[in-house]
Amino acid sequence: MTPAVVVLLLCAGLSEAVGRVLPFLVRRPGTSPKAVVSLLTTGGLVEASVFALWPLTAWTLADWAAPAPPGPVLVWTPGLLAPLLLAAVLAFPLLGPALHLLLLAGVGVGLTGPLAAATGLGWWSAAACVAVAGAGLGVAVEVVRRLVGRMTAARAREVVV
Fold first, then answer.
1. Residue 46 to residue 60: CA distance in whole angstroms
2. Which residue ranges does UniProt annotate as crossing the membrane (predicted)?
3. For a tag on the chain, would you pick the N or C end, based on fewer CB atoms within 10 A?
């Protein structure tokens, strides 16, 4: 991965984390700055990791669907990643989750062409691999996020009681 791609992934992850942390901060205005920085750093790294895994997961699914001859693995390029950064910037809940989802779908369509070309799959099959990979990663992160939230809330109740 080039340094430009790493920087774009980190910016997209941080932007996505800010969009997720802001509603939390609105509900808890007394949160310490140290906790805010910790939440943003952790969330940004997790979101950037999920974004980085999206093409690799789609590649793996495509390989299962129709084993292709060994070739270059699908990776992010700055051109493919720029729309993802735009989608992450628009992730703020007040700006519209529907628009954010539409932009992520556009990023997925952008990944579909290179995946289809690299694996020899048809466009629709490659699109299905990209969609399943994106949805699977999104659901996995959401499940972990909710579990951590419940564990943190339960621990906080124990401390208060």
1. 20
2. 35-61, 73-95, 115-141
3. C
CA distance linking residue 13 with residue 46, whole number of Å: 7
pLDDT of residue 29: 79
Q: Quick one: tokens of 21?
A: 């942390």
Domain boundaries, the chain: 3-160
CB 118 within 8 A of CB 72: yes
Question: How many beta carbons lie within 10 A of that of residue 96, not counting itself?
Answer: 13
Surface-to-core class of residue 59, CB atoms within 10 Å of its CB (0-12 exposed, 13-18 middle, 19+ buried): buried
Three state DSSP letters for the chain: CCHHHHHHHHHHHHHHHHHHHHHHHHHCCCCCHHHHHHHHHHHHHHHHHHHHHHHHHHHHHHHHHCCCCCCCCCCCCHHHHHHHHHHHHCCCHHHCHHHHHHHHHHHHHHHHHHHHHHHCCCHHHHHHHHHHHHHHHHHHHHHHHHHHHHHHHHHHHHHHC
Summarised one tens digit per residue, pLDDT across range 48-72 is: 899 899 998 998 888 888 776 656 7
Whole-angstrom distance, CA of residue 93 vs CA of residue 19: 6
pLDDT of 83-121, one tens digit each?
777 776 765 555 556 777 777 788 889 899 988 888 888
